[in-house]
Amino acid sequence: RDHCYGLISTLARSNFALDERQEIFDCGNSPSSSSAFTSIASAKLLFGCSSNEIEILRPRATSALDALLGGYTRVIALQAEQAKKDALVEEFNAQKNVNPWADLSVDGSGSAPVETKGSNDVTASLARSLSPLIWNAARRSQPKSSRLAAARWSHELLSHIDAPNAYHLLCFLSGDDDATVSMIAKQAMGVDKTLGDDINLSSWTKDDSMNLPSFG
Fold it and tell me: Which residue in 59, 67, 81, 103 could disulfide with 9, CB within 3.0 to 4.6 Å?
């Protein structure tokens, strides 16, 4: 199992995670659909390992889970970049093909508005799959390694695809009995120095107000 964790970590940190088949996210299975990115099979397996693995191998399981998280975030960043490029191309084509004599249109500007197609459907499907998994990992009955992973996945991944649910999770984890888990959750929300203390809003500066987290 030690070698398996090492192999998963290596593959997730390499360009293999960006391969169009994206088998790393589906336990190595070839996708039956157009993308395996919405699969959480590997994440589900590694979350279970981080909770139930023997003590000596638990850090290895957690390391593999962290590497898989990095793979997800890299793919999402790549898809977001590609979506922006596609939107610019669509906008350019729409402007190039517009009829300059058409003065009646939906928005009154002589051209119909351009709809941008991004990876919203994919990330929404991934968020629906991940949320129950991370909530289960965040339970107080789970070991510290599982709750730490839940905090990291909420902050680094879920907050980018489902901000309300991510910050709900982080609020829950900020009250964790373990100081490390609680600190990570509070830092992720940007309230590590104020949560639990009396806040004097009149003493806040403009910079302080700008540091509050975005809730979507």
Answer: 67
